[in-house]
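Worked problem 6 (solution included).
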Amino acid sequence: MKDYDVLVVGSGLAGMSTALRLAERCRVALVTKHELLDGASSWAQGGIAAVMEGSDSIEDHIRDTRVAGAGLCHEDAVRFVVERGRRSVEWLVDQGVPFTRDDGNRDELHLTREGGHSHRRIVHAADATGRAVQKTLVGRVKSHPNIDVLEWHIAVDLVTARKAGVAGPERVLGAYVLDIHDDRVKTLGARFTVLATGGAGKVYLFTTNPDTATGDGVAIGWRAGAAVANMEFIQFHPTCLYHPHAKSFLISEAVRGEGGILKLPDGDRFMPRHDPRAELAPRDVVARAIDFEIKKHGVDCVYLDITHKGAEFIRAHFPNIHARCLEFGIDMTKEPIPVVPAAHYTCGGIVTDLRGRSSVPNLYALGEVASTGLHGANRLASNSLLECLVFSQAAVADILAQPEAPRPALPAWDESRVTDADEEVVISHNWDELRRTMWNYVGIVRTTKRLERARHRIQLLQQEIHEFYANFRISNDLVELRNLVLTAELIVRSALVREESRGLHYSRDYPETLPQAVDTVLVPDGAASLVAGTWA
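Solution. The predicted structure is:
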């Protein structure tokens, strides 16, 4: 057993910024499944939404966030995050992040605009903001003497007082962590545990997410007793590059923000028929419009055309997207980009208050794994990295304010009653079936019948996976599959409870939006419920 002040699980922006802020006063373990730069934060192209200039305002950013969230955003959470936007960007600037500067005034940051925003307020580093931010922080994390970085480790389960046989109230005491390289499970004790594991896009067949996005944090938090909320709200990004070899490559919202037009294969522009905001409508509106047009016309994809802006403009604003498209034989300066919607962001997650605290003592959740009340029924573009930064700072302040407490010894991982797996094919087969089931039955447009079919098949898969987990030594693939199938179940359970269409959840059986916006809250060992109000 190794013992730390704080265990941070996940190395995206939420995880790394939390570890850095804590490390001045705490001994921190930072656990990540692959290498530090392999999470979804590094893939973020657009930027960070923040009020940075006089023509914009806090109230405008709050209003845009609430409109996108379809009435389900929590007022206190939205204001809490938006008011801390500029301060969060300045913290990154102080860390040395090379944000793009304004051509007319190099002292000012260049601001772009994305769908759903009423102003230019997206701070960015060309079209690879997440990569620039993460590369800046990773050096600081790896060189800090108070941070132990455990790459190629995956959290298997949290250690709770009840599970460890420790007296006193139920609380999280650390985690069991699998070393992926040698398949050994380590016991990591900690006064506080922070889940910053990202989302669950890999639960779907088509996603913009990296392979690490397997719902780990939601699953292990749920098994430890944490409440989750609003898991039915899965954001499908409207524009993922459609190419057989372009795995998960996202075409940034900023392409539409800078004038990109969506067209059918025959060149017909269709978005004005679906929404007066056209290409600048929120993501749920654009994704459903594309899904509708693809199905109506029987085509494989639609096209995003920004050629009218000129080659020099395109190469200057979107150098990475331009280069990536060229790798697949697509020159976006001369031809439109083929795109389709794909699962992109998990708006729900572990319920937290404004200090990042979950419903289980000593357990925090930050970033995409959390349900803070900010995003409501649909996340506004570029609010996600901002949320990571704001709640990281809030959680760190709360952790540092807590008094010292005794640290009990924790039991080692017990694998005395399991054997080596005889057929790994079971894992790959169930993985594929689960993702196809979710894509076909729990996608952009849903029906109760489809959801019931998905629930039935997921229950059968859970039985098979549980039997495999109980009898054989664990592997990274098995841990991820176990988490993924549980996350899928929570998504379907939440979708069945919501008998309306709101934001990202669209049901043909309940096409209307109810007058009152309520959250879908699931509690372990409890019934699903609809709750109006605030986490805080």
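Discussion: The chain has 16 helices and 19 strands.
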